[in-house]
Structures are given as C-alpha cells and as structure tokens.
Amino acid sequence: MTQRGLTLIELLIVIAIIGILTTVGFVNLLNAQHSTLVHQASTELAANLRTARSDAQRYDKNVRFALPESPATSYILTYGAISRQVELPQGTQLKVVAGSSSVTYNAPFGETDAVNREYQVRLARPGSSPTVYIKLVGITGKVVQSEQP
Fold first, then answer.
1. For labeling, which of 4, 36, 85, 105 is most exposed (least CB within 10 Å)?
2. SS3 letters across 45-91
3. What is the dihedral of CA 36, 39, 62, 76, to 10 degrees?
4. Domains of the chain: residue spans and CATH
C-alpha cells in the first residue's frame, strides 16, 4: 500500500521556508520605501531651490530659502514679501551640514548671498537610513544632489 500526501515534517519545513522568504521580502520592501521617501524629499527640495533661483532672475525679486530649525521637517520660501512654508514628506528631516540655515537668491542675476551651503535629507528615525545631500555650489547657487557628503 502506497501513501500519498505530505508528512507533517515536510509541511512544517515548507511553512518555515515561506516564512523566511516573506521576512526577507518585507525587509527589502521597507528599505526600498525609505529610500524612495528620502529621494522624493531631496528631489522636491532641489527643484524648489532651482525654481527659487530662476524666479529671482525672472521676476527681479529676491527669493529666500530658510530652515526654521535644524533638523527641520519643513522649510520656508520667501518671494519678495510673500512667504510659504513647504512641508517635507512625512518621516523625513532636513539638516544643515555646512553654512547657515538660510540662503537668498538676489535679483536680478539669481546669485546667492554666500557660497557653498550643504543640506542633508534623511529619515527622521535614527539608524542606518538612506541620506541624500543637497549642495549649493558657488555664488551662482547651482544645486547638486549626491549620496556622498
């Protein structure tokens, strides 16, 4: 008489393997989500800084970028007399690495008031999380994104 089916041990081994693969997949998915969140925040910040420089040139008004504190979850853009606060995606922080917490693009050429500012965008939680650096280079305030300080 032949038996068909699985033994209990074979079934437990299959369940254990599925559990291990699910755990590994979940950890990788979580890391990818954190990385995407940081890259989204840094891309948005870089785009707003480029727009600020362009607006200073286009509309002949000074544009100021400022952090209320460091690390911050938002930043303030001031166009002439109009200010707006921009929130970073939830769970991300912005920190000053080099220079002061504000920069002004002066009209009419969009030049900055100081050179070589550096900001760090990272997750708000401590630990090994992805980090992106936003650098304002030279008097022109060119915006450069990198994953290296």
1. 4
2. HHHHHHHHHHHHHHHCCCEEEECCCCCECEEEEEECCEEEEEECCCC
3. 50
4. 8-146 (3.55.40.10)
Tens-place pLDDT, residues 7-38: 899 999 999 999 999 999 998 898 888 888 88
The CA angle 101-37-74, to the nearest 5 degrees, is: 30
Closest CA to 142 of 32, 53, 23: 53
- Omega into 108 within 30° of 0, i.e. cis? yes
Mapped onto helix, strand or coil, the DSSP state of residue 118 is strand
The tokens of 85 are what?
Answer: 């606060």
Tokens of 145: 């994104």
